[in-house]
Amino acid sequence: MLENNLQEIGLSNKEIKIYLALLKSGTHKASYLTKLIEMPKTSILDTLNSLVKKCLVSKIKMKNAYYFTAFQPNKLLEMLEKQEVEITEKKRKIIKILPWLKNLQDISSPKPQIDYLEGKKGLNEAFADTLRIPKKNIIVYGSVGAQAYSLPEAFPEYFNNRVKKKISTTCLIPACLPSLAECSINDKKHLRKTYFIPKEMELPLEINIYENNSAFMSFEEKFAVIIRSKVIADCLRIVFQLAFEGAEKYDHEIRKNINYKELQKFYKKWKRIRKTNKIPKKLIEK
């Protein structure tokens, strides 16, 4: 839990190991830390210098050697406050130049804009993009299990962020156990209308249609593509509308056979496991 929280504020695994080691053991040279932590000395030095730049560790030269000390933990808050000031300043600069940037954009062009985003970072950026415009509806094909397994750091916080912006969803969701539990229990809370389909129709892929955008997130291949085209988004909405109508019979049959007591039990277990960020693959395939 401690390491996870430090990771979430921007510290790397190496920085966390060294910072915690110094907090526990006091002032030391880099050579001492190589004995304490299984890490090459050059890597330890690079990481220590990174922590010094972040004002979390002090560096003092004594008798031709450098000694390092971890500052008080309150420095973590100061680091975040400094980052907040820097972000505010960057936002101010962008706001200032936005009119000029918009003038450069050829909005009359009929060509769609295509964004290609790679890795976990790209997948997170794609999901964040779906929340840019509040009080709208997103059409979704997806799986709660695949989301949690591939992006444990982003879900279920994404649902809460979406609700804060009053963004609803209409979803086509294969009836695997995590999806059945999440959607049956939390649909109303998460502003979601779900149509369950057989779990055999599950793929490691998510599709989101929002405003004039169509986002395709491939969890297995770890990339996302966002196509910004009104024509394509409108076409996919028609396709999904037909899919929702066809899914009604599956949804009715699946819900009729749900054992809600067992589902509640599973959901309690699911919440506990999800918090660990280590979700067994076999669990999402149930």
Describe what this molecule looks like in 3D.
By secondary structure, this protein is α+β, with helices and mostly antiparallel strands. The chain folds into 2 domains: 2-70, Arc Repressor Mutant, subunit A (Orthogonal Bundle), CATH 1.10.10; 113-284, Endonuclease Chain A (Endonuclease, Chain A). It is built from 12 helices and 9 strands. The chain has helices spanning 2-8, 13-25, 30-36, 41-53, 74-104, 119-129, 144-150, 157-164, 177-186, 230-256, 260-275, 281-284; strands at residues 57-62, 65-70, 113-118, 137-141, 168-174, 192-197, 205-210, 213-218, 223-228. The strands form 2 sheets. The chain has a 7-stranded mixed β-sheet with strand order 3-9-8-7-4-5-6, with helices on both faces. It is globular and about 80 Å long. The two termini are 27 Å apart. The mean pLDDT is 88.
List key phrases describing it.
Arc Repressor Mutant, subunit A; alpha+beta; globular; Endonuclease, Chain A; 286 residues
* Gap from first CA to last CA: 27 Å
CATH class assignment of the largest domain: Alpha Beta
Number of separate domains: 2
**Uncertain stretches of 5 or more adjacent residues:** none
Helix/strand order? HHHHEEHEHEHHEHEEEEHHH
Q: What's the number of extended β-strand segments?
A: 9
CATH architecture of the largest domain: 2-Layer Sandwich
Roughly how many Å is the radius of gyration? Answer: 24 Å
Global structural class: alpha+beta
Assembly level: single chain
CATH superfamily of the largest domain, by name, is Endonuclease Chain A
SS summary, helix count: 12
User: Strands of the largest sheet, in order across it?
Assistant: 3-9-8-7-4-5-6
Which strand-content bin applies to the residues?
Answer: 15-25%
Report the biggest beta sheet as strand number plus sense, adding barrel if it closes.
7 strands, mixed
